[in-house]
Write a structure and sequence with these properties.
This protein is of the alpha/beta class. The chain folds into 2 domains: 4-263, 3-Layer(aba) Sandwich (Rossmann fold); 266-315, no CATH class. The chain is built from 15 helices and 8 strands. The protein has helices at residues 4-8, 17-28, 66-69, 77-84, 102-113, 130-138, 158-161, 182-185, 201-209, 227-233, 237-245, 251-258, 265-277, 281-294, 298-317; strands spanning 37-42, 45-50, 55-62, 87-93, 122-128, 146-150, 191-196, 215-219. The protein has an 8-stranded mixed sheet, sandwiched between helices. The longest helix is centred in the last third of the chain and has 20 residues, at 298-317. It starts with a helix and ends in a 7-residue tail after the last helix. The mean pLDDT is 91.
């Protein structure tokens, strides 16, 4: 029998959007016992609901990036369903749409009218990038929810964010209608965390627009444009969501979780590039020595040798001083 349990054992890796949606729909359409179901909203959007516990995770995910955070190309929330017994509602899109579509608006209208969110003790919204925008924007449907948004855009309305030239094709999409300006939609949230890399200037500019009393902005330098994948690799993302749901996530606790970056190769290489770019020879030596103490890495061995040479040359160039 095909059901959610068997679906979690099935790899959805390398499937096209249509194959991915049909595989999930075929499994869940036969899972009448658990109440799990999938609904295709239109050609580019679908909703997947897995009922379990009294905590609901609402995640927004883009199919073309789902393999970056899951080896089996599963929605992120399925791990929380299995590990913590949460319920999960996944809104999935084929590619980045920011979920600015009437079919999505109508779906949330139906959930609100049915009192869907009121059936749960806790509701957590999550998304990254364009999906982070959606998590913040649609969280207004569940007042009192908690939100975790990674690198979200506040809006792509050119009257507000004309400086963001990364998504020019979306400029004809209306961001001034329902569920529009994401920072305003967070006013109904109990708390929200906006996580971003300050070295990505446009992301930092969007993050500034989220300044609200109930929003904690947290900087994560050197993680690059795919922070969600990096945080999954560090085993930070799911732990942060669990702490957020328990009301225990703070700037300090997130900083403690984020210390896991020190053991991640991608972060180490990003940090090395920064120290080399800025000719920070002493920092390069300290970084390379710390990494080489954990593992052998030719790029770090080469960087350490060059840093030692540069520092030695600097010492030779120092003027002699009178020892007296």
């Amino acid at each position: 029998m095909q059901d959610f349990a068997s679906l979690t054992e099935t790899s959805l890796d390398s499937l096209s959007w249509s194959e991915w949606t049909s595989t999930i729909t075929d499994h869940l359409s036969q899972d009448s016992q658990s109440g799990a179901h999938a609904e295709v909203l239109d050609a580019r959007h679908m909703a997947i609901f897995i009922p379990k516990g009294t905590t609901l995770l609402v995640s927004f995910e883009a199919h073309h990036r789902i393999e970056d955070v899951s080896d089996k190309a599963h929605p992120l929330g399925w791990a929380m369903v299995e590990a913590l017994g949460w319920s999960h509602l996944c809104l999935a899109c084929e590619r980045d749409t920011w979920f600015r579509d009437n079919c999505v608006f109508g779906y949330f209208d139906r959930l609100i009218d049915e009192g869907f969110f009121e059936e749960f003790d806790n509701v957590v919204f999550y998304g990254a990038g364009s999906c982070g925008y959606a998590a913040a924007a649609f969280s207004v449907a569940a007042p009192g929810a908690r939100v975790f948004a990674i690198q979200p855009q506040a809006t792509l309305d050119p009257r507000v964010a004309e400086w963001d030239d990364r998504f020019l094709a979306m400029r004809r999409t209306a961001f001034d209608t329902r569920f529009g300006y994401a920072p305003d939609m967070l006013d109904a949230a109990q708390t929200a965390f906006v996580v971003y890399d300050p070295d990505i200037e446009l992301d930092a500019m969007h993050a500034a627009l989220f300044t609200r009393p109930n929003v904690t902005k947290f900087r994560m330098r050197f993680l690059g444009p795919h922070m969600d994948a990096e945080l999954m690799q560090m085993n930070v993302l799911l732990r942060a969501l669990a702490q957020l749901n328990a009301g225990k996530l703070t700037r300090l606790s997130l900083a403690r979780l984020y210390r896991a970056r020190r053991e991640v190769a991608g972060y180490q290489f990003s940090l090395l590039k920064a120290t080399l770019r800025d000719d920070r020879h002493l920092l390069t030596r300290l970084l390379a020595s710390a990494v080489l103490a954990r593992r052998d890495s030719p790029p770090f061995r080469k960087a350490l040798a060059r840093a030692n040479t540069a520092l030695a040359e600097q010492d030779d160039d120092m003027p002699a001083t009178d020892s007296a």
